[in-house]
Amino acid sequence: MIVEHLNLIDFRNYAVADVALVPGPNVFVGRNGQGKTNLAEAIGFFATLGSHRVSSDAPMVRDGADAAIIRARLRHGERSVQLEVQLNRQGANKARIGGAPVKVTELPRYAQVVLFAPEDLQIVRSDPSARRRFADQLLVQRSPRLAGVFADYDRVLRQRTALLKSARARGIRGDALSTLDVWDDKLVALGTEVIVARLRLAEDLAEPLSRAYTAIAGADHEPRIEWALSVGGGDPEEDEEGADAAASTPAQIAELFRAALTAKRSAELERGITLVGPHRDDLVLRVRGLPVKGYASHGESWSVALSLRLASADLLRAESQLGDPVLILDDVFAELDADRRARLATLAADYEQVIVTAAVEADVPAGLRARIVRVEAGRILEAADV
After folding, report:
1. Is 105 annotated as a binding residue?
2. Which of 105, 164, 314, 337 is most open to solvent, judged by the fewest CB atoms within 10 Å of its CB?
3. In this predicted structure, what is the pLDDT of residue 323?
4. Which InterPro entries does the protein's record reference (predicted)?
């Protein structure tokens, strides 16, 4: 897949921007805060329906504007398609494909992007929500229909939690709250689908993760990836050990889910929150048999974070009919030592299109500096071959 052209209106610090891109490496160079990452963020939105920097869409709308528009022309082989999304400060976003209105959730069917940024270090070092978000954004690219499943699960979760809070405020006991059973059924049905998809993803990522880690780190530290599930009785969100149910069937997971909800009902009513489900699970990453979070060195943590993104790209490339995903490296070379820079550049150069952002041109390995685009204060100043 190739991004041929990007157009922005009232997106971040861009009033208007038009950028032509080419196959192979495209490097955006400019001082910090000029808008380089905003270009990467805009391209990535089509694939994940979200930002790698913020959890809501409003910050992406330029100050003083009610909506932002992102347009991109993509080429898949000999075929080109125009995608457009309007991000609204209030109300639902809108999308078009080839000029025809579509649901926003249709966009990832046409766009596959793997974006690595310094913030990705938080995937391995931060709380479980960062790792869940990584997995779920990759799942949407892998199976776009899951965007609807995640949205439905979040809606049911909010409604069930609201009921728990209301019951807590009124002092209602669990056995007197029959309406909770209805929401339990919906939570289990949707949550089981999410858990099954996540388990399959971890299994499929295992081999490409191992290959990518060895290529980046220059050593095999036996990286491992597995889910800790709250349906097993623990609470990974609160550092309690959850069950690893990688071999469980959907029926077994649903049974565990329902039993855990029953066991935790009193605690849920006491606290007014839903304590069981995929929103409490954690993606556990290990090297040398130890959890990356809390045990890995700085270099190992960077290697794992890079490897997760490269493994994602490898997986999408193997499964997709769209060609290679676009690989975006957002301000990462400045964070890496010389050896990792060279290794990453070698791996990245194998993709159909690579987009790199950097504050200092010299930070980017020479092999990726085929085309330089200068960015300053929300303006594209020039594009020159070097």
Report:
1. no
2. 337
3. 84
4. DNA-binding_RecF (IPR001238), DNA-binding_RecF_CS (IPR018078), P-loop_NTPase (IPR027417), RecF/RecN/SMC_N (IPR003395), RecF_2 (IPR042174)
